[in-house]
Amino acid sequence: MPAARLDSGMYEVFLILHFLGLALGVGTSFAFLTLGISTRSMTPEQRTEFMLKAAVLSKNGSIGLALLIVSGIGFLVTRGVGEVMRWGGGAFHTKLLLVAILAGLVGYLQVLLKKARLAGGGPSMATIPKVSRIALIVSVTIVILAVIAFK
Ligand code: HEM
């Protein structure tokens, strides 16, 4: 592990933003999982109406991911790309690959949610929970890789 964490005020701001992004981003995925489970007893119409309202939560997910990416780039700039790549090693490289996949999944979820909103439900309502669950698994894997990379 390189010398103690970079003692630059800006670096600490990025670290705070990274953890806030984590709370917002991964928290949203867990919230949708719980909402999906807790609405199973509803009729399909009630559930569609409820989930279309709850879909506003996805904004938190996008803001969280944006904070993670911006603060992550902040780490690279302040500490140096080469040093972070060396420090994080293979676990960090895999993490970055999964971050790209997560960004694609979150983008696709936004498209599905928009379609569902415009249609007042429709076929994309069945796809949203599946993509959301994959995004949750990818997010948790990124967290595990980050802890392995930066211990
Ligand atoms: C462009 C995207 C990203 C970059 C470049 C990046 C980079 C980094 C770096 C350099 C650290 C170490 C910070 C330090 O301790 O000094 C870190 C920590 C961490 N990152 Fe990221 N990150 C990114 C996205 C994400 C995402 C999307 C997640 C979660 C879904 C995430 C989760 C974490 C966690 C949990 C830590 C803390 C690890 C620990 O302290 O043990 N990061 N990240």
Most strands sheet: none
The tally of strands reads: 0
Ligand list? protoporphyrin IX containing FE
Secondary-structure element pattern, one letter each: HHHHH
**Gyration radius, in Å:** 18 Å
Specify the overall morphology. Answer: elongated
Structure class: mainly alpha
The helix tally amounts to 5
Helicity level: over 70%
Q: Give the percentage of residues in beta strands.
A: under 5%
Quote the distance from N terminus to C terminus: 7 Å
Query: How many distinct folded domains?
Result: 1
Mean pLDDT over all positions: 92
Low-confidence stretches: none
Describe the overall structure.
- By secondary structure, the protein is mainly α.
- The chain has one domain (about 5-150).
- It is about 85% helix and about 0% strand.
- It has helices at about 10-40, 45-55, 60-80, 80-120, 125-150.
- The model has no long low-confidence stretch (mean pLDDT about 90).
- Protoporphyrin IX containing FE binds near residues 5, 76, 84 and 139.
Write the layout of secondary structure elements.
Layout: H1 9-38, H2 44-54, H3 58-79, H4 81-119, H5 124-149
The structure holds protoporphyrin IX containing FE.
Task: Name the descriptors.
151 residues; mainly alpha; binds protoporphyrin IX containing FE
Give a summary of the structure in a few sentences.
The protein has 151 residues and is mostly helical. The chain has one domain (3-149). It has helices spanning 9-38, 44-54, 58-79, 81-119, 124-149.
